[in-house]
Amino acid sequence: MMTKALKGTMAAAAGVALGLTGVTAAQAQDEEAGILAAGNVVIEDDGIELYGTAGGEEKEPNASMIALDTGDGEYRTVYCIQLEVDLEEQYLHEERPWDDVPVEDLPKVLGVLLAGYDGTNAGELLEEAGLASDDYGDVTQDQLAYAATQSAIWSLTDGWTLDATDPTGDDVADEIVPALQAWLLENSAPVEEPEEPYFDYDATDAKVEGTTVGPFTVDTNIDSLSFEQPEGATVVDENGEELTTLTDGQVFSVKFDKAETASVTIITDIVEWTTPAGRTFVPVDADGADVEGQRLILAEEFTEEFYFEIPFEITVDEVPSESPKPQLPVTGSSLTTVATVGGAVLLAGVAAMVLMRRRAARADWGSDA
Q: Which residues span the membrane (predicted)?
């Protein structure tokens, strides 16, 4: 006689797929999977040249106004956080957590960013700092605000010091950039790393009972994820009641319709996430490996739309159940019992965020950062 045993498995690559909405079929062909957000470097303006010292040596860096093109038609203002590392414009830049970025004092840098120029507020910033003017000569408000914010950041990350008598190559900037830098450093406070969106679930207590796989406990920083029941299974709570949303701490199980090998995928509705200022980006090659080059920090938030895909699989195995049933040495349980209950081990993979993103067309920009 043969007895069917149910074995629940969750694909090791189970995780999250991000789908950008409003993408045409042609654009969709250019979408690629990657970790977190990404974009191509754009030099929007050559900016203002700065004069000073770092590491005991005289330097003349350009505070070039840099942005990331994330593929949605908008440029996001970013800053360099390594004074003596080249900007690798030819590479895609991909988001990384602060722990993966070899730069100190990032909390202080983020504080300056939140107080400084985000790509849109030059006039308000100069007004607030008491440095507004009716005539900026050959430079613009944006160039001044960006240069001062960049210089303040380098002072934190690289010990950069502006020359006291000749800080820039422009008379107006000579007055405003050092003063605005000083104001930013005085009017900012350290801010810890902002969160990225995540969804995971704890499978520590999960097992198979009949055709039900679970329980799983949700771990997420997204307020609520709604979904439609997958075909071939029902997502239920601790009481066996159907669920239509998943929230942090929610306990759920997946109840398959039949005791047969099957797989289902929970697909959530589209949600929005605002990527905040302070996220860091690094250059990566075509294989997604980090490349030695300038690290960048995001100065303005932006919102993206995405959804999650969470796959589950249940496998039906046939196991012998002839009598007499041999006993296990420690527990005394029969092999048949182990095969039909305890042996139905649930294998759970780590839920990983995978974003579907469009690569913006690369342009051949040539300048120094």
A: 335-355
